Amino acid sequence: xxxxxxxxxxxxxxxxxxxxxxxxxxxxxxxxxxxxxxxxxxxxxxxxxxxxxxxxxxxxxxxxxxxxxxxxxxxxxxxxxxxxxxxxxxxxxxxxxxxxxxxxxxxxxxxxxxxxxxxxxxxxxxxxxxxxxxxxxxxxxxxxxxxxxxxxxxxxxxxxxxxxxxxxxxxxxxxxxxxxxxxxxxxxxxxxxxxxxxxxxxxxxxxxxxxxxxxxxxxxxxxxxxxxxxxxxxxxxxxxxxxxxxxxxxxxxxxxxxxxxxxxxxxxxxxxxxxxxxxxxxxxxxxxxxxxxxxxxxxxxxxxxxxxxxxxxxxxxxxxxxxxxxxxxxxxxxxxxxxxxxxxxxxxxxxxxxxxxxxxxxxxxxxxxxxxxxxxxxxxxxxxxxxxxxxxxxxxxxxxxxxxxxxxxxxxxxxxxxxxxxxxxxxxxxxxxxxxxxxxxxxxxxxxxxxxxxxxxxxxxxxxxxxxxxxxxxxxxxxxxxxxxxxxxxxxxxxxx
Length: 497
Ligand SMILES: Cc1ncc(COP(=O)(O)O)c(C=O)c1O
Fold this sequence. Notes:
With 497 residues, this protein is α/β, with parallel strands linked by helices. The protein is built from 17 helices and 16 strands. The protein has an eight-stranded mixed beta sheet with strand order 4-11-10-9-8-5-6-7, with helices on both faces. β1 and β2 form a beta hairpin. The structure holds pyridoxal-5'-phosphate. The site of pyridoxal-5'-phosphate has 15 residues, from α8 and α9.
């Protein structure tokens, strides 16, 4: 044993026996003492190191407890060989059992066995459409600007001041923020949901969520312990008749709604229904969280006012994001809400990540102020309109009789209901085997319902990919139907929602 490598510090607060056992463990880990080698007897080592014999015994006992050495009465202590390492020694103490520590919850695994060429599974913009040249130029301008040092400095949990002021002024000009409102910048809209759920929906709080709904949204509310109350979404947005009953029966504190181009259905709530939602919320004293991340992506029909613009009672919290209209990778979203709520969100955000990255915010501000964002949104709308036409045409042409699908006026997604007895989860592996992917309906509800539903996110795909992808889904669905005994008994259902 290489005694000169043993380092002990008598001035340290760490007891000597612990220092000694760590030193020996390190030596074992580095191969300084090999498997099967005998350690010096306690009396011998005590003499060599000038320590009390009980210190050596305590250190050996600790090493034995860690499985690094074995003691044999009358023969001494020997370095163990690690059973899992084929005779190799562990570098430190016994291996930690992560299974015993980690929560027992099912993690989402979405790794198809096949390589996917056409993926309808992600609601994101087309990467080919990113205006890289102007983005690079504007990012360079930001980095070269006199504000660079401020951008690199620690900032406020409310967000990068210049972007915050810009967004708040824009919102005020459009009557999306009132004099009582403030704005906080978050890491995408996703973080905003998380903060809002934690502030407004502690365990047991009844919260109405649309159904089907974006997975990442119900997840954060469920995780916060909220009592999730599903409100059905039809082809024209949330069913306000059911919403009224839910408000009466459950007295929820919150309702989370996406009035324009809801994810996953693409549905839009008509103006009179928006007004009804506001009236119901007032009547039942419900706070409305309005997701407004898709509303700029309108390809047909006139724009509708947001709930926030219709409300005069200060009960609507508006969530925005640059993820769908610009670059999801920069992770910039925001919340417009009454000042006291924003203060709570900021306090919680500070605990989590201090504040969002300044550089992303500064570059997006430059992108918006220079007019490039506006131009990019125009181009995205043109492309989106063609993509929407393609997906609707492909659904009409290729889905089996009895399939129903929504007809969005914008956004990135459309919802399909397959005819019975088809189940979208069963279809998925067969579709994936042909290089196409989608998300099955069960993914969009807390209760894993919607077995026949599936979401087609078309925003990031080219028209020809959309046509081919839907054709493959349709062919697989038709084949499945033909091989199903019950098919013959089915009556055709009218074509669209
Ligand atoms: C309703 C909803 N909220 C949040 C997100 C995530 O947005 P962000 O990238 O801004 O975090 C999505 C993305 O699909 C969404 O549909």
